[in-house]
Amino acid sequence: MAVLTLVNILISFAACAEALRRADFPQGFVFGTASSAYQYEGAVNEGQRGPTIWDTLTRRPGRVIDFSNADVAVDHYHRYKEDVDLIKDIGMDAYRFSISWSRIFPNGTGEPNEEGLNYYNSLINTLLDKGIQPYVTLFHWDLPQALEDRYGGWLNSQIVFLDPLMFGHYPPSMQKLVGDRLPQFSARASMLVSGSLDFVGINHYTTLYVRNDRMRIRKLVMNDASTDAAVIPTGSVRMAAHSALGHVQADEAHQRKKRVKMAGMDDANNRFSKLEDDLQDDKRIQYHKDYMSNLLDAIRKEGCNVHGYFVWSLLDNWEWNSGYTVRFGLYYIDYNNNLTRIPKASVEWFRQVLAQKTAGLEYSGSTVASS
């Protein structure tokens, strides 16, 4: 049965793999996969790690749909060497991971925790030994609880906007709301900060259709990004990836900066489904095929300076308020069997796409056809 299942998977993606090849992307283009510390590491009480706001939140009933937490997650803390081997096996160039703030600074500030430093040094060295480039995220939602208690988290007045570093001015919404009270950039200051970042990462997963709230009923909820929203994600929207890149490409200073794009899609974690069905993730393959094709479209038609494409995510993992109810991974995690990593069809699809380094394809519009 296992042999038959593997044969079926190989047959199903063989045709898809012909549609995209690494060689179609610019020289030096980086393909990678991604994770985040809180969703992957587990080991929340090991290595002198301090508590985070998500450790606190998951202890409050009803905050996570399946009442789970990430105390173990996918045990990346103990199994990172195994996971790095999986990245290497696919043929990925890079791994984007986050550093747990509370693992380095258990109290948010002060002296760094030696055990935390050793863990990340070991992870980075393991990646480099395998020829995989580390891309480090400094903050991925897991704020130390100590800083939440002390400052109120990111709602503190010391919050920083990215717009000045990209465009040399504050966000238009901020200019409108604050008006004349907003400090002004001098022409020289604006020139110095505008476009001063090395690259910008753009996350794009799906698209939401919105309309004006004609009822104008204000919900009594403060500081909630979804307060006025009643929307449903539409899934794979191939042209939206192109649109998102075009939006940031419009600024002259931004055109000179490299962009790194990350995208991914989830499946429901259905405990009644068969394993062979869960491994046959054709929708995920089509999703990445669509998004990568449109990425090429943006590069070739609009001249977008895109440097890489990162897949969320390497493994199924703990997905914030959704807990373990959804699966984003290229690798299936068997939560009932020692967190065994099992490759889905998308692993082999990416492996074949990334192995095509010399033969290009004839490209036309938003589709790719073999030459």
Automatic annotation (TrEMBL):
One annotated GO biological process: carbohydrate metabolic process
Keywords: Glycosidase, Hydrolase, Signal
Residues spanning the signal sequence: 1-19
Keyword flag Signal: yes
Keyword ATP-binding in record: no
GO molecular function, a single term: beta-glucosidase activity
Organism domain of life: Eukaryota
InterPro entries: GH, GH_1_N_CS, Glyco_hydro_1
Pfam families named among the record's database cross-references: Glyco_hydro_1
Transmembrane segments: none
Similarity annotation: Belongs to the glycosyl hydrolase 1 family.
Protein name per its UniProtKB record: Beta-glucosidase 25
Organism, scientific name: Zea mays
